[in-house]
TrEMBL record:
CDD domains: FN3. GO terms for molecular function: microtubule binding; transferase activity. One of its GO terms (biological process) is protein localization to microtubule. SMART domains: BBC (SM00502), FN3 (SM00060). It comes from Gambusia affinis (Western mosquitofish). This is RING-type E3 ubiquitin transferase. One of its GO terms (cellular component) is microtubule. Pfam families: COS (PF18568), fn3 (PF00041). Keywords: Coiled coil, Transferase. Residues 129-232 form the Fibronectin type-III domain.
Length: 236
């Protein structure tokens, strides 16, 4: 029964992944088409600008050629002066003789690189409960009424949350029976980082702490750690 359930779940999850990929393909395809339209529009504008520049330049060249055919010295000088003024004005005002063609801006490149996503897909596997975290005694600190617990986890990226459990240590050596006595434990659920400060503790008191790593597949507890608050007379 469990095998059939897991097989059905596998098909469902894979179908959802395929559907997500199909939707993203459509979205990216639309973006590519929109980019193509925009670039063609810019290209058409650039071509029009270049054509306009050529037409104006051709008009100036024609006027210059006509000036060269002028036999009258005074008229030749006047015509040449007019051509020079038109060229100077065109260049100074809008630089119509030099079209502004910025190909890098209009045709900026983009890449379709799904290597990271492919690597993630290649690593698909069923999820297991995380390995037990480890309480780092050397990093834990205390005051007269607080204890800050630090821990590490080998499966940090698969852990969705941590749960900190603690109780007063009364000399028990059988930790299994202590775990089973749920009424004696204080629980701090849904911790997202790998440390937590417990407030309101009794001064000069030894506590037992345990950290539970949790994900969708299950949970596992750390080995218990015994940590003590400072006496009020002690300096932190």
């Amino acid at each position: 029964v469990n095998t059939a359930m897991h097989e059905a779940k596998l098909v469902e999850e894979c179908d959802e992944l395929v559907e997500i990929i199909r939707q993203r393909k459509q979205v990216i395809a639309v973006k590519i088409k929109e980019s193509k339209v925009m670039k063609l529009r810019k290209l058409a504008q650039q071509i029009a600008n270049c054509r306009q520049c050529l037409e104006r330049s051709s008009a100036l060249i024609t006027q210059a050629e006509q000036s060269l055919k002028e036999n009258d010295h005074a008229r030749f000088l006047q015509s040449a002066r007019n051509v020079a003024e038109r060229v100077a004005m065109a260049t100074a005002s809008s630089q119509v003789l030099i079209p502004d063609v910025n190909l890098n801006e209009a045709f900026d490149n983009f890449a379709l690189d799904f290597s990271r996503e492919k690597k993630i897909l290649e690593g698909l596997d069923y999820l297991t409960a995380p390995n037990p975290p480890s309480i780092r005694d050397e990093l834990c600190t205390a005051s007269h009424d607080t204890i800050t617990v630090h821990w590490t986890s080998e499966d940090e990226f698969s852990v969705t949350s941590y749960e900190l459990q603690y109780t007063i240590y009364t000399g028990q050596t059988n930790f299994i029976s202590l775990y089973n006595s749920a009424d004696s434990w204080m629980i701090v659920p849904n911790i997202k980082q790998n440390h937590y400060t417990v407030h309101g503790l009794q001064s000069g008191t030894r506590y037992i702490f345990s950290v539970k790593a949790i994900n969708q597949a299950g949970s596992r507890n750390s080995e218990p750690a015994r940590l003590k608050t400072n006496s009020k007379s002690e300096h932190v």
